[in-house]
Amino acid sequence: MILDGIGASSGVAIGKVFIKQQNDFVLPTHKVTDTEAEIKRFNDAKEEATLELKVLYEKALEEVGEEHAQIFDVHQMLIADLDLHDQVVGIITDEKYNAAYAVSEASAIIAAMFESMDDPYLQERAADIRDISKRLIGILTGEKEVSLADINEPVILIAKDLFPSDTIQMNKQYVLGFITEDGGKMSHSAILARTMQIPAVVGVKNILTKLDKNSTIIIDGKSGKIYINPTDEELVYWKAKQEEDRNYKQKLQSLKGTANKTVDGIEIEINANIGSPEDIEGVLANDAKGIGLFRSEFLYMDGHALPTEEAQYEAYKKVIEAMEDRVIIRTLDVGGDKELHYLNIPKEENPFLGYRAIRVCLDQVDMFKVQLRALLRASVYGKLGIMFPMIATVEEIKEAKALLEETKRELLAEGIAVSEDIEVGMMIETPAAALISDVLAQEVDFFSIGTNDLTQYTLAVDRMNAKIAHLYNTHNLAVLRLIKMVVDNAHAAGIWVGICGEAAADTTLTETFLGMGIDELSVSAPSVLEVRKTIQQIDTSKIQLKL
Amino acid sequence: MKQLIVKVQGEAGLHARPAGVLVKKAGEFSSKITLEKDGKAIDAKRLLAVLSLGAKQGDELTITVEGSDEEAALEAVKAVIEESH
After folding, report:
1. Contact between chains at A70 and B46 (C-beta distance less than 8 A)
2. Minimal-distance CA residue of chain B relative to A77
3. DSSP secondary structure string, A184-247?
4. What is the mean pLDDT of each run of 10 residues along chain A (547 residues)?
5. Exposure winner among A40, A329, A344, A369, fewest CB in 10 A?
6. Quick one: A269-424+497-541 is in which CATH superfamily?
7. Are B10 and B85 in contact (CB under 8 A)?
8. Residue of B nearest to A307 (CA)
9. Cβ-contact A521, A531 below 8 angstroms
10. How far apart are CA A333 and CA A339, in angstroms?
11. Which residues in chain A are closer than 8 Å to B17, comparing Cβ atoms?
């Protein structure tokens, strides 16, 4: 049987399946006569749960470090909590219900209390309460959920959806690839798969009803096709394909040190997108010379409070020093799907059309200037480009530039050195910016086109919505025409223009982009060599654009 | 009985882990230890109760201790709240 999904991370995987079960069991609810015995069962379950969590803590500590392991420590403390204990014992003693039901009731009350609180951090603790409740009930009823940590042979993981907590527990060395029923190309699990460089297909409706634990499957992360219990022929074909894939990846390595030059001698810049200084290692290993997009928001999303000027300065400096070529750092881009709890931005009906990115920064000037100070201070360590996100009007870019100038003057007055040679640019992510790119080009040194948002805004397609994921298409004529318009306007004004969205790594679009005259492509580190290879095979004099 | 007003120092406030440390520390003493914020008083030996205060960095908490080891308990609890991060 062949199923179609959305290819989220390329590559071929062949193997047995491992199904992450849904929790559809019915909670046993009955009255007990021996309440003392029932309380003892509850206490025993608590002890066993604590032991399980100790093991999980150790595992997480070893694999992902203390910060991520802490959650299992907190779960142990929640299980030991006296309020939970008193409530459960109260339900058993007074209402004479069985322990599993009592745990379920007590945790529902406590979870509801957390959910009703104002602090988003505490609202999330409701999930922790449900998690420990599930664990205790599992022990009490013997209906234990199979844990992803128990995977001990190579498998393809199948799930309705994968959550961050699942991925911590997952035994990564045995996961060949995964398939989820929910999610689109930009869902958490899809991004994770690309980072881990394992094949993945998402948005496969009802796959859980179409296979069982004995099924063998093939997934092709590129086309999004899934073969359940494949025929011998299919198996032979895809094994060969997998081998080819491996050879291809090895061959790409031989392109290191070569130029990003087309057949007719046109050189294109290929840079890397990164989210933190730790990504530099991968960038250098894949032979990118510069950074086309450093997403600074990850510095902000790490902790519980705004990063200090010093912490930002250190991070920027580290990246600028490590790279031979220019490093373009995008100023804070929060809102939309990226929330910062400590900023207390109220929930919005349409976050992607709301208070996000430059709109937040121009509104919270004090916060913005901390970042600008850190950037300017770091500029002396190499070649820096500063890029503003989500610009829709000329006023916005003017205002952002004025703040940058003001900050620069303040630093100089304090006797702090700032580089003379900083490029200032902006992202083109809104159709509005594309349409007035001739005017905007007068204001900046470069444009970088963010195709993810530009596509979503142009086509009015929410990229997080799996139901309409098929409508999200950067190849769409409307999107391509906007990109062409931006390139033409940039060149007419004498500035360079690049692409830093996902489409930059889409090799089926490389020829189109080169035909438009794009100057730079910025892609995730693992895609650098593949894009280089594609460029080396293109002859721009033979491209015929059909736009 | 002893009473003291302290300011939460950790940037994460009394979130899950710091709250856990506090509860563990409070449990080492026999004195009754209460924390009060904005008129809401809770037992410092109970994790869920401490969490439910939702104390953030800069919030002021009133610690009240009563019992045979109240002096040591007050010192210890104060230290945790002021150092938690």
Report:
1. no
2. B20
3. -TTSHHHHHHHHHT--EEE--TTHHHH--TT-EEEEETTTTEEEES--HHHHHHHHHHHHHHHH
4. 88 90 72 91 94 85 73 86 90 93 91 80 77 88 71 86 64 84 71 75 87 88 92 93 87 92 96 87 89 89 81 94 95 82 80 92 95 97 97 98 97 95 97 98 98 95 83 94 98 97 93 97 92 96 90
5. A344
6. Phosphoenolpyruvate-binding domains (3.20.20.60)
7. yes
8. B11
9. yes
10. 10
11. 70, 73-74
Taking the Cβ of residue A48 and every Cβ of chain B, the question of whether any pair is shorter than 8 Å is answered with no
CATH topology of domain A35-141: Enzyme I; Chain A, domain 2 (1.10.274)
DSSP state of A278: G
Nearest partner of A521 among A504, A509, A537, judged by Cα:
A504
H-helix segments, B1-85:
16-26, 47-53, 70-83
What architecture (CATH level 2) is domain A2-21+146-232? 3-Layer(bba) Sandwich (3.50)
Mapped onto helix, strand or coil, the DSSP state of residue A335 is strand
Tokens 């529902």, located at residue: A108
- Model-level pTM? 0.60
Contact A260, A37 (CB under 8 A): no
Q: Is A303 on the interface with B (CB under 8 A)?
A: yes
Q: What are the residue numbers of the active site of A?
A: 188, 500
Element (H, E) at A288: none
Q: Where are the alpha helices (DSSP H) in A441-509?
A: 451-459, 477-492
Answer whether B57 touches A (CB < 8 Å): yes
d(CA B5, nearest CA chain A) in Å: 23
